[in-house]
Design goal:
There is one protein chain. The chain has two domains: about 90 residues, no CATH class; about 120 residues, Four Helix Bundle (Hemerythrin (Met), subunit A) (Up-down Bundle), CATH 1.20.120. Helices cover about 40% and strands about 25% of the residues. The strands form two sheets. Strands 1, 2, 3, 4, 5 and 8 form a six-stranded antiparallel beta sheet that branches. A hairpin with a 4-residue loop joins strand 3 and strand 4. The protein is elongated, with a radius of gyration of 22 Å. The N and C termini lie far apart (about 70 Å). The relative contact order is 0.10.
């Protein structure tokens, strides 16, 4: 199989991708690229490796795009074309930017939050479910919640006035989702994960981020 490398073939081209900071699909300009054209008598393909910059906020990402002669689709006019798959690094989802003031979180909480956020953005459903449970566990640990299991520890957070009773009830649903992922190796749906992560982010803001902001106002 032969391979041909071309430098900056796609430089200055525009890509529409989700920006990791703008939280929207924006135009990104290719700053630098490497194009690898490969093939033999049976199959040919192109791999593009691009450093791209958002034209809205100047954040930089890395894009990998691939196409080959074996994959083809048909457009609305009946014409065949070779679709291009792409991956963007760091991974991101529309509407799922990390929490602001993440450094207000304790070290252990921040570490698990970052890894769980990455699993969610790459749609690693079981790992994301386990991570969400781990986040609840580590918050209980940091706040010295007592109890023989996670259910009792969440209830103890209510007694300590860290959580409201209503928030604890919601958090129990998140706990059950994490149990299924951890013990039954059952993948939650994307919608379940999104809601559960929203709940846990709200917990982190309530327990850590908002109190730190309040301290700055004193």
């Amino acid at each position: 199989m032969s391979t041909k490398i071309t430098l900056n073939k796609t430089k200055d081209e525009i890509r529409e991708v989700v920006c990791k900071h703008c939280n929207n699909t924006t135009n990104h300009k290719v700053c630098s690229s490497v194009t690898s054209s490969w093939g033999n008598e049976d199959i040919q393909g192109v791999d593009k490796y691009e450093i791209i910059r958002c034209l809205g906020c100047d954040s930089v990402s890395f894009r990998v795009a691939s196409s080959n002669s074996e994959d083809f689709e048909q457009d609305d006019e009946g014409n065949y074309f070779h679709p291009e798959s792409q991956e963007i690094y760091p991974n991101r989802l529309m509407g799922r930017v990390p929490l602001k003031d993440i450094y207000s979180l304790p070290d252990k909480v921040r570490s698990i939050y970052t890894e769980t956020h990455a699993a969610l953005c790459t749609r690693l459903q079981i790992l994301a479910g386990v991570g969400i449970r781990a986040l609840v566990e580590v918050v209980c640990s940091e706040e010295h919640a007592r109890g023989r299991n996670l259910e009792r520890k969440i209830d103890d957070l209510v007694k300590k006035e860290v959580l409201t009773k209503r928030n604890a009830e919601i958090l129990h649903k998140t706990r059950l989702l994490g149990n299924a992922a951890a013990h039954e190796v059952k993948a939650p749906s994307n919608s379940e994960l999104d809601v559960a992560f929203d709940i846990v982010e709200n917990l982190l803001e309530t327990v850590y981020i908002i109190p730190k902001k309040a301290e700055r106002l004193k």
